[in-house]
Amino acid sequence: MKQTKLQKAYQFCQNMAQNHYENFPVASKLLPSKLRLPISVIYAFARTADDIADEGDAPQETRLEELEIYSKALTDIKNQSYSGKDPIFIALADVIDKHDLPIALFNDLLSAFKQDVVQNRYYNFEEVLDYCTRSANPVGRLLLHLNGEPNQQQLEQSDAICTALQLINFYQDIIQDYTEQDRIYIPQDEMVSENIQEADLLQADTQHIAPLLKSLYQRAKDLMKVGYLLGTSVKGRLGWEIRAMSLGGISTLQMLIEQDDSNLLTRPRLQKKQLLFIVLNSASCMRYRKKANLMLR
Predict the structure, then answer these.
(1) Which helix (H) or strand (E) holds 141?
(2) Which Pfam families match (predicted)?
(3) Who's near 244: CB < 8 A, 6+ residues apart?
(4) pLDDT tens-digit readout, 179-191
């Protein structure tokens, strides 16, 4: 049977998600099957926009112009007037319409990608949090909206988890972000206060920067405490997925916290046995709550 244009658009997004899923929950076997296709479309949108911002050697002006094309497509989708041929936006228009997704969340993501093009240092922690509000939180909110109608508490818990996960990722990748993208997400004002130079982020011995990093770890932990019970209020496989992602983040943060002060820039990685342990402990709300409470004390 010949595929329609919409079917081909969905297939394009699904192929991209299966080949490049990275940390996005699109490939998770825990997800409800009904959500995998729309999530693959959201992933394709975010992945390609992120690549525009980060990949290759195009000048800033070109990157911003290409991202503005994405903004224009979102405006057209909002006005139900998209007539382009990009399979990502053909499929995205259908997903947004079927699930009544807030366009503002996609615009927030684009705002963060545009910021990636022009900003690579953050003056204070509030600036970092503002970035996370647009780079991470929309993803969690979109998952909840795909699943139904989340209440305000669930949205706030989702924001706390997503921001915490983003911060944990930053603290895992300090060297990589600095050497590959010339980005530093450690607040500049706090680096100055602690007499930390950028070159200190590449030193093998991290005792000098340990007090600041441990303070940042604690802030991520405090955010996780605010949101970690979200997965116990969401029913079915999505609740299991949220619990697993949360416990994975909590476990990674615990590994960061437990590292020796002289060796904080070694990237901790969860092993297969640990991942299986996380999935099993997330299957039951009671078991998850007990494990998370223990690690977040």
Answers:
(1) helix 137-147
(2) SQS_PSY (PF00494)
(3) 28, 30, 231, 278, 279, 282
(4) 999 999 999 999 9
The CATH superfamily holding the domain 122-296 is Farnesyl Diphosphate Synthase (1.10.600.10)
The single-letter DSSP state of residue 79 is T
Give the dihedral of Cα atoms 193, 198, 200, 202; nearest 10 deg: 150
Q: Is the pLDDT of residue 199 over 60?
A: yes
Bridge partners of 121?
A: 184
Cα→Cα distances 117→44, 49, 104, Å: 19, 11, 20
Show me where the domains of the chain are located. Answer: 1-117, 122-296
Domain 1-117 has CATH 1.10.600.10: yes
At residue 1, the pLDDT reads: 46
The rounded distance, in Å, linking the Cα atoms of 196 and 180 is: 20
